[in-house]
Amino acid sequence: MSLQGKHILLGISGSIAAYKSATLTRLLIKKGAEVQIVITQAGKEFITPVTLSALSGRPVISQFFASDDGTWHSHVDLGLWADAMIVAPATASTIGKMANGIADNMLVTTYLSMKAAVFVAPAMDLDMYKHISTQRNIERLKSDGVRIIDPTEGELASHLEGKGRMEEPENIVAILEQFFASGNDLEKKKIMITAGPTYERIDPVRFIGNFSSGKMGFALAEESASRGAEVTLITGPTALSTSHPNIVRVDVESAIEMHAAALKIFPLMDVAILSAAVADYRPEQVADEKIKRSGKENLTLSLVSNPDIAASLGEIKKPEQLTIGFALETSNEEINAIKKIENKHFDYIVLNSLNDQGAGFAHDTNKVTILSRDGKKRSFPLKSKREVAKDIIDTALKPSTIDNEWLYL
Ligand code: PMT
């Protein structure tokens, strides 16, 4: 594998592990990459820009302006230039700033302008790494799609033993090579994803809805798009936004609208992933005017059933098309999920249970078991929804990569 011609933006923050950045730069260059280094003020206390620019063959950037001639360094241009950004070492402070969008230096400002994949290799003392604040920021970065290269265990600068050592440069290079080798593995795949809740109108001011935030579906869309797929994301009402150029977003409100959009789009697709929490029922009548209390103690709504989007797609599905459903369960989880595979003609179903802490609606995390039509299953621990999205895509679309990881039911 090689990194021939790849543009790598290397961000260096202020950790003793910054000495490893010199080796990392040298290895990246040896593999054929072009390396542009952005360093924080604190980073310069640990390694000199002279060393780094000699190794990378480019001036090292740390300020918005070059102090000698006033040249403006454009973080936007750097964001467009890079094929990948790697922050190594990433201190607790830099991780915190990245997670919270605090763009008070060139490194974090550049991160906020990045269009390509971002990798972060933390390096810090074990207690700082374990701290709830650091872990929260790392989780937030993961759910933003940043790939964290876990630190290793060993002797730290404090002479304490524990987890916090930056991963070795050779392994970081291998991770980048792996990424570029499989980076576009979904190129040309057309994937339709449903996300979010549906709102079923009662009158002009009220609706029946559910607690879906859309996070699971949006994570699936971002993961698929970042791997080169052409994604159509049909979403119910949500506060989330999408920016990836490979994602076409279709906003709908009700189950009937989502059903119509899905039926129109699905025949052009290779894959459909149905993560939306679609209301099974809607009010039979939608009042034209706001329903008034007018002294009534009870109000009875008559509900009629909504179309089942998954079942409708199952009926028109061609043999070469793949459908992946979700099952949100509260009891008899696996039995109910298996029934849904059959009733809705899914190839795979992703089971998440409201009995698992951190799983299901609105969390940034989820805990899933993936069941296949041919009676196999894979169970995963609690992960960020972006990582769950990767597990789902790898399981259903890259089955050869996980052949020996199935359990037979
Ligand atoms: O959006 P988040 O806050 O991130 O939460 C994610 C989630 C919990 C909504 C998601 O992970 C999930 O479980 N989505 C499916 C929820 C659901 O409606 O499950 P279900 O068991 O009722 O439906 C089974 C399958 O049929 C689902 O794929 C669903 O999209 C589909 N369905 C259901 C009803 C219907 N009328 N049409 C459908 O297509």
Give a verbal description of the structure.
By secondary structure, the chain is α/β, with parallel strands linked by helices. The chain has two domains: 7-182, Rossmann fold; 190-408, Rossmann fold (3-Layer(aba) Sandwich), CATH 3.40.50.10300. It has helices at 19-30, 43-46, 49-56, 75-81, 92-100, 106-112, 126-130, 132-143, 169-182, 215-226, 255-265, 309-316, 333-343, 385-397, and strands at residues 7-12, 34-39, 84-90, 117-122, 147-148, 152-155, 161-165, 190-195, 200-203, 206-208, 230-235, 247-251, 271-274, 281-283, 303-305, 322-329, 348-353, 365-366, 368-372, 376-379, 383-384, 407-408. The strands form six sheets. A nine-stranded mixed beta sheet has the order 12-11-8-13-16-17-19-20-22, with helices on both faces. Strands 2-1-3-4-5 form a five-stranded parallel beta sheet, sandwiched between helices. Strands 6-7 form a two-stranded antiparallel ribbon. The longest helix is centred in the middle third of the chain and has 14 residues, at 169-182. The protein starts with 6 loop residues before the first strand and ends with a strand. The model has no long low-confidence stretch (mean pLDDT 93). The structure holds ligand PMT. The site of ligand PMT has 28 residues, from helix 10, helix 12 and strand 16.
Describe the secondary-structure layout:
Elements: E1 7-12, H1 19-30, E2 34-39, H2 43-46, H3 49-56, H4 75-81, E3 84-90, H5 92-100, H6 106-112, E4 117-122, H7 126-130, H8 132-143, E5 147-148, E6 152-155, E7 161-165, H9 169-182, E8 190-195, E9 200-203, E10 206-208, H10 215-226, E11 230-235, E12 247-251, H11 255-265, E13 271-274, E14 281-283, E15 303-305, H12 309-316, E16 322-329, H13 333-343, E17 348-353, E18 365-366, E19 368-372, E20 376-379, E21 383-384, H14 385-397, E22 407-408
Parallel strand pairs: 1-2, 1-3, 3-4, 4-5, 8-11, 8-13, 11-12, 13-16, 16-17
Antiparallel strand pairs: 6-7, 9-10, 14-15, 17-19, 18-21, 19-20, 20-22
Helix pairs in contact: 1-3, 1-9, 4-6, 5-8, 10-14
The chain binds ligand PMT.
Ligand PMT binds at residues 194, 196, 212-216, 255, 274-278, 280, 306, 308-310, 325-328, 340, 344, 352, 360-362.
